[in-house]
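Could you please review the protein record set out just below?
***
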Amino acid sequence: MKSHFMFSKEQRNGIFLLIILIIGLQCIYFFVDFSSEGISVDKETLVQFNKEMDSLRIVKLEESKPKIYPFNPNYITDFKGASLGMSNKEIDRLLAFRKQNNWINSTKQFQEVTKISDSLLNQITPYFKFPEWVSNPDGAFKNYPVDDFSEQARWRGGNFNNKPKTFAQKQDLNKATAQQLQKVNGIGVTFSERIIRFRNKFVGGFIDDVQLQDVYGLTPEIIERITNHFTVKMPRKIKKLNINTATLDNLVTVQHIDYDLAHNIIEQRQLIEGYKSLDELKKVKDFPVNKIDIIKLYLSLD
């Protein structure tokens, strides 16, 4: 133990000097004031800086809020209505009104139908965008050929009569131009070009109107309005596959059927010893039920 507590003269002097240095530094820390008295704050500049920071925060909050774009109030959905601040009852009143094939033609009529408050009406009406036949009924159809809309495109009693035409009156969807498609309410340049581009993917065009479901962005309501005026009169000719004899490689040539689904279709076919109806495909594992009408265009039972 002695070896740990025995120090030479030089070591003792070094330890003593270290103790003095530590004590000195502690005294300086406790007794010397290092705060600067020369720092001055320009209060006006500080206030201006805080105002700028607050304005930047407000701008950031406004940017983070969901933006509302102009829309036709006739096509407000449950989600859209809720995002606008409408109650379920107000939305239901609008949907019930539209279900009767009635149209909202003014902000006043919108409030009468939905019974929304004045404050909410004032908030959302700046975004209402009615079609041309509401804002300019006299000139809405002056550029449209008579045989394109005939009596169905007239302004009657403040409502747009959109009853479907007969098969003979409709234009062939496989020959329709983008300009003709744009005459349908809800079809603009983007949708019309998208329809034409999708149609041209197939030599001969569409097989059936139901293929419009595959055009990206088209809602059932818009498809219904298209088929009120257009239909496939000269369908693309195809050779249907017998669902009970088709091979894996045959089935994958059909839209919406990949190798996994084709395998499941054949496996189900073997289990039930052949399909008796094409609707039995709905029972196949991972089958896209919402696309069955399109898939059935390519299949047969014999």
